[in-house]
Predict the structure of TetR family transcriptional regulator.
Amino acid sequence: MTKMNRETVVTEALDLLDEVGLEAVSTRRLAKRLGVEQPSLYYHFRTKKDLLAAMAHAAMAPHAGAQLPSPEDDWREWFLENSRSLRRTLLLRRDGARLHAGSTPIGDLDRIRHKMAFLVTSGVPENDAQMAMLAAGRYTVGCVLEEQADAAPGGDEGLPADVPVIDHESAFEAGLTLILKGMEQCVEGADGAA
């Protein structure tokens, strides 16, 4: 039997996710993996939703630990790298985007505030910075959802032979560039109005 604490449960749950996918993750399966009775999991997590939230938070650790922007950073380069970091992190776990979608970044609020302040200080109007960060985050999650769905067994079946295979990274970069161009226009508009 594995010594069980909150961290162990989350680690084993993420390993289970990688093995079987989000649809097949269950508290029953996790308890069996840990060598415990299912009710003992509720000592650490009152509901499966609580467990999934903890899994999402732990899965995002690489992105959450990325260096925050500093005043001398170019906001454009930082914005692109921040979105790339999110994408890389979501791709580390099977169904990582599905696990993350809809999660609440409660523990990351100070980091989010820092990122927003950086963009605003760099000249991006506050409302535009908020909408751009939201759009980039949702765009990234959506791109990874599609990429992970294509990577799943049978994910690309049924496509006609003349339909090109999508290069997910190139498509992601193209869309991200369009979001950045929109931000640049907002900054130019704000500079012109000043």
Q: What stands out?
A: The mean pLDDT is 91. The chain has one domain: 6-192.
